[in-house]
Amino acid sequence: MSAAILATILFSLSAVSGKRLSHYLTAIEANMIRFIISALLLGIYSNYYGIGLGGGAFGMFFISGIIGFGVGDYGLFRAYKIIGSRLTMVMTQCLAAPFAATVEWLWLGSSLSLGQVLAGVGILVGVSLALAPNDTMQIDKKRWKNGVFWGLLSAFGQGLGAVLSRKAGMMVDAGVSIDGLSAAYQRVLGGLAVMLVLFIGQKIITHKHNNYNSRAGLDSVSIKWIFLLVLANALCGPTLGVGAYQWALNVNDLPAGIVLSVVALSPLVIIPFSMKFEGERPTVRSLIGSIIAVVGVIIMTNMVVK
Predict the structure, then answer these.
(1) Residue 88 is part of which domain span?
(2) Chain centroid, CA 105 distance in Å
(3) 74-89 and 141-171 are packed helices; what angle lies between their axes, rounded to 10 degrees?
(4) Which end of the chain is more exposed for a tag (fewer CB within 10 A), N or C?
(5) Percentage of the chain surpassing pLDDT 70?
(6) What integer is the mean pLDDT of 221-236?
(7) Under 8 Å between Cβ of 62 and 190
(8) How many domains does the chain have?
(9) What is the per-residue pLDDT for 242?
(10) Could you tell me the pTM of the whole model?
């Protein structure tokens, strides 16, 4: 469980830096840059101390990265800018747990008890309460719906990516041990491939429409601040955060539903950060909904562990 708890803390820090970064870079740009940094750092470690691209399950890890990083993180950054880091994390981390548990049940044959199903329903109720619009939200209904859509896409990508990653861990060659950072390296390459394709497509479209870069006039202080945000996000997210996450999934061999349930604590961990750095003042209903959702995943975790 220690690896999953570490991932929770790192993902919370990644969310805060990601929210701020979303005001400077597009979702494609931010993810591409942080994936490049992460791939370089993880690649150096994995090729010298890990198994590099070996292990016999690279294809499945790569596909997991396409879904989890490529789809999941793209939706994550789109949602950050609209509904903020806290609500985005409530959606992504809490909903990813029942998504993953359902996929594992349908595909891998992992059983779901009545208690787990009820806990999943509780999670959905809590997330709905936390996300329901209110009069104090400075966001129109259309944009709120867009934010919810991207959050749902992120949750689905994270959940399915986690299950595919666990499946990849089962496919590793006999006698081969894959550590969390090596697994993260193989996955992040899938996410990087998606972002490179989207980035090239974005540039082609931009060129055809003769759009100009509105960030051309950024001063050196802003550029340094953006670089620090990207570096912090790359380290806390796809590098160390996912490394701890993969450690829990593949080294400790915990079911994806359990790992995602522990990581679902992120929405509570992030509250003081979002209040300080984003100026958010969550409503009582939103906080109650977040707590209900987190309690739901904790109950689900305890049931699986027992």
Answers:
(1) 2-305
(2) 22
(3) 110
(4) C
(5) 84
(6) 86
(7) yes
(8) 1
(9) 79
(10) 0.82
Q: What is the mean pLDDT of residues 82-97?
A: 84
User: Using CB atoms within 10 A of its CB, is residue 140 exposed (0-12), middle (13-18) or buried (19+)?
Assistant: exposed
Q: How far is CA 208 from the centre of its chain?
A: 32
**Is the model more confident about 216 or about 232?**
232
For position 85, what pLDDT does the model report? 86
Element (H, E) at 250: none
**What is the number of other CB atoms lying within 10 angstroms of the CB of residue 199?**
16
List C-alpha distances in Å: 172 to 103, 156, 238, 254: 21, 25, 21, 16
d(CA 154, CA 83): 13
Q: Specify the pLDDT at position 79.
A: 92
Residue 158: burial class (beta carbons within 10 Å; 0-12, 13-18, 19+): buried
Closest CA to 38 of 199, 266, 233: 233
pLDDT digits (tens, 9 = 90+) for 153-207: 999 998 899 889 888 888 888 888 888 889 889 999 999 999 999 999 988 887 7
Average pLDDT value over all residues in the chain: 82
Q: Which residue has the tokens 């209040």?
A: 275
Using CB atoms within 10 Å of the CB of residue 209, give its burial: 0 to 12 exposed, 13 to 18 middle, 19+ buried. exposed
Residue 299 amino acid letter = I
Q: What is the spatial distance between Cα 231 and Cα 214, in angstroms, rounded to a whole number?
A: 22
Distances (CA, A) of 141 to 43, 85, 159, 247, 272: 43, 18, 27, 40, 26
Residue 49 CA to residue 43 CA, distance in Å, equals: 10
What residues contact 52, with CB distance under 8 A and at least 6 apart? Answer: 43, 46, 182, 185
Enumerate residues 6+ apart whose C-beta is below 8 A from 149.
Answer: none
Distance CA 128, CA 95 (A): 10
